[in-house]
Amino acid sequence: MKKKTQIPVHSMDDWFSGVYIQPMGIRKLHHPVYEMSQPHRHDFYQCVLVDKGEIVMEVDFEKIRLRDRHVFLSYPGQIHHIVSTQMQHGWFLAFDAATLDNNLRSILDQFLTEIMVMQLPQQLFESFYSLMDHLYQIYVNPGQLYQQQALQAMTCAFIYQLASAYLQEERSALSRHSARNIEITKTFRELLRHHGKSVRSTSQFAAKMNITASHLNDTVKSVTGFPVTYHIQQELIREAQRLLCFSDRTIMEIAGDLGFDDPKYFTRLFSKITGVAPGKYRKGKCKE
């Protein structure tokens, strides 16, 4: 695979207008016209709802298999591509972050996982499918009044329901933790998603949240099993892996891009977390 100086980023403005929805499967996608089997990023959210069939995707170096009644949501900035597809029928929904209200964007940013994927119960799946179908009927009728407003409202309604279903699963897994500790951890996750490259210490995050560094660290560790520094480092190394595999930037340039003044420290940290030096990672893992 030939690398590029920069990771391909496909913009909502290039292809769609705020919201885009199409059936997948026998009826082929008219857009996007870029090659979906090649690793790329979006500057928008992408949702896939599988009715019948299977799609295998790779998202930030993790393979995801979507089958009947699975729903998947990717965040802007994640690197992904389709490995294989035998989709019989499903839906593809893309939407700009500006489509969502501030509360909904915050909810999505606070999820404790980096990849949202789940299999829906039959009744809930049918409800989601119906919403997608209704959204599509609005999308393909450009002559109606207030089409764009209706598309945005319906997309928000769909994502709110998706977030609700996902949060129920998440809360069940976190039931032994207090509501306050979960709230602190989620706020930290939201800040990390937005400031992971510029805010680099527990104390800086704690100051933004008006709590002590020790309280933040103890809380995050109790809920996730890992301290704050672990999450900060994971965010940085994940971006380093993206740049190593899908750009021609040197290791020194990547270290600088990620805010490391000392490239040697970056190399040591990368090696500690991944088990291999950046150069070997690029030559080995990136070619798998």
TrEMBL record:
Domain spans labelled HTH araC/xylS-type: 186-284
Alphabetical UniProt keywords: DNA-binding, Transcription, Transcription regulation
Stretches that traverse the bilayer: none
SUPFAM superfamilies: Homeodomain-like, Regulatory protein AraC
Molecular function per GO: DNA-binding transcription factor activity; sequence-specific DNA binding
Name of protein: AraC family transcriptional regulator
